């Protein structure tokens, strides 16, 4: 065992020496404040190399990008965090009361201030002024400032849905538990601390500025919402380029920190049944998807510098397909957001990006209903009863009903699984995972649904994600787990996140054979698989 441990250490050393994260050279890091100097320019030509870019704020962008700014102002990104004012607060603060456990909280209006009388850190009732609103739909939360710089998220939230849909009411985010002031989930405790847990994805250029010695925060941001530079990166060099009407010489990407141009000039034609939608140009990078993933992924920060850089692993380590976050077949279980599901999909493997389906500034879908899907999948072949086998006009005719089923989080927020998978009720029979069929047809069992799928599409219709058995074996340590995980790690056709999960799981079955697999994974072409090999070493 000592010899085996030493071998694992050698693998770790070689991993670090090789440079584990990205095969690309990292971009210049953004300055910590928005006051760093812009590029020095003479007659439209910058003094090279360009200085490290700094944040300039959305106000510097909107003058030139009026259409994008107008779309953004109508998005949830623009109102992710707002000062609490009569114009931004949606909840009923007209003396409304809400009881949770043995605590009755009262929501009050005092002039233009909004106040909640509720149990504080010692369990006694006190008045707390609302400092910021936190989100808008389908729920709005509220932040309360403390003297030590903390902003704490109240666990009683406002249901912003229409009254006819069950909304326009106060509700608690943990209705089936009893959370008192001693619990880490209490609104005054660590797990509800906005500065650390939530802030990075509800502001731009967040700096937590936590002082461990004093146990205080001095958190700052460039914009108090998710603004332009949260996606495009710090904009000082781009502003300098624009102000001097410069040409392209010496200005890579016109000074932009991140070039989100992977869709530029790309064309495609819808494919019929059995066909493969083709793009006029293959995707050369995943900058866009990895930029979105900085917030739209379950991940942990690797340092104090915020993203994005266009490469997720520069700044964050994403969660793998582990329990309880994901089902063994990769479907979402816990609140994992979007990226970890999407990168399992055949669409991601074929070069589809977030903005193929979503307009990036307004956040809206590019078309209504099935129109999003029929951009690439011919309606005559797929938006047809011969494909979906459901009556016209019914809920089952929606592509997302079968391929993107929802799971509800925060009590009232249903979110689509973005793995875009073929329904597999047969895996419900063998592995107990959910399936879209019986999610709607609750009066039938999975065996009934599996038989229907075979009748309609044949017994070989297994979809793109075929790693459930390997990950289930790895989770339980079943006989044959090492062989199944090894095969998955080495299967270049499987999604990288599944291969990475298998590599990390090999730490549970250490042997000379699995050591060799991890050693090979250190040199894998996927940065995520390489990172997972390190996880296996350190486990």
Summarize this entry quickly:
This protein is α+β, with helices and mostly antiparallel strands and 539 residues long.
Which tags fit this structure?
single chain, 539 residues, alpha+beta, nine-stranded antiparallel beta sheet, 19 strands, disordered N terminus
CA radius of gyration is: 25 Å
Mean of pLDDT: 90
Which structural class is indicated by helix and strand composition? alpha+beta
Shape: globular
Count of runs of 4 or more consecutive helical residues: 20
Instruction: Name the poorly predicted regions.
Output: 1-35
Portion of residues in beta strands equals 5-15%
Oligomer: single chain
Largest sheet: 9 strands, antiparallel
- Give the fraction of residues assigned to helices: 25-40%
- CA-to-CA gap between the ends? 15 Å
């Amino acid at each position: 065992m000592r010899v085996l441990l030493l071998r694992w250490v050698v693998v770790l050393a070689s991993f670090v020496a090789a440079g584990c994260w990205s095969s690309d050279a990292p971009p210049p890091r953004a300055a910590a404040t928005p006051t760093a100097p812009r590029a020095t320019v003479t007659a439209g030509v910058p003094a090279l190399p360009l200085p490290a870019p700094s944040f300039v704020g959305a106000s510097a962008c909107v003058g030139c990008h009026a259409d994008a700014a107008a779309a953004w102002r109508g998005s949830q990104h623009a109102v992710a965090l707002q000062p609490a004012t009569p114009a931004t607060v949606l909840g009923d603060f007209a003396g409304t009361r809400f009881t949770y456990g043995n605590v009755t909280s009262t929501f009050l209006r005092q002039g233009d201030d909004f106040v909640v009388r509720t149990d504080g850190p010692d369990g006694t009732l006190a008045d707390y002024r609302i400092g910021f609103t936190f989100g808008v739909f389908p729920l709005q939360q509220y932040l309360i400032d403390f003297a030590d710089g903390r902003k704490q998220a109240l666990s009683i939230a406002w249901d912003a849905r229409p009254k006819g849909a069950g909304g326009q009411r106060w509700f608690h985010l943990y209705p089936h538990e009893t959370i008192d002031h001693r619990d880490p989930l209490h609104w005054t405790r660590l797990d509800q601390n906005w500065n650390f847990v939530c802030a990075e994805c509800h502001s731009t250029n967040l700096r937590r500025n936590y002082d461990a010695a004093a146990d205080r925060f001095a958190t700052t941001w460039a914009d108090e919402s998710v603004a332009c530079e949260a996606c495009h990166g710090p904009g000082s060099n781009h502003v300098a380029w624009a102000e001097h009407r410069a040409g392209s010489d010496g200005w890579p990407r016109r000074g932009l920190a991140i070039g989100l141009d992977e869709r530029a000039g790309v064309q495609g034609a819808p494919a019929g049944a059995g066909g493969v939608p083709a793009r006029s140009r293959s995707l050369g990078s995943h900058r866009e998807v990895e930029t979105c993933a900085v917030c739209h992924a379950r991940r942990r920060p690797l340092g104090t510098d915020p993203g994005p850089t266009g490469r997720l692993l520069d700044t964050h380590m994403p969660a793998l397909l582990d329990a309880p976050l994901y089902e063994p077949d990769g479907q979402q279980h816990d609140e994992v957001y979007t990226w970890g599901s999407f990168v399992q999909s055949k669409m991601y493997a074929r070069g589809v990006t977030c903005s193929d389906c979503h307009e990036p500034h307004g956040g809206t879908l590019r078309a209504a209903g099935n129109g999003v899907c029929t951009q690439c999948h011919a309606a005559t072949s797929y938006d047809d009863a011969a494909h979906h086998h459901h009556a016209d006009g019914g809920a089952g005719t929606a592509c997302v009903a079968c391929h993107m089923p929802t799971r509800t989080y925060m009590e009232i927020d249903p979110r689509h699984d973005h793995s875009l998978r073929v329904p597999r009720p047969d895996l419900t029979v063998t592995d107990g995972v959910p399936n879209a069929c019986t999610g709607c047809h609750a009066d039938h069992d999975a065996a009934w649904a599996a038989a229907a799928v075979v009748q309609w599409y044949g017994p070989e219709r297994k979809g793109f994600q075929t790693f459930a058995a390997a990950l289930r074996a790895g989770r339980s340590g079943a006989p044959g787990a090492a062989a199944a995980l090894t095969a998955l790690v080495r299967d270049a056709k499987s999604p990288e996140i599944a291969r990475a999960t298998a590599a990390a799981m090999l730490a549970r079955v250490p042997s000379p054979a699995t050591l060799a697999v991890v050693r090979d994974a250190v040199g894998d072409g996927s940065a995520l698989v390489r990172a997972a090999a390190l996880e296996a070493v350190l486990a």
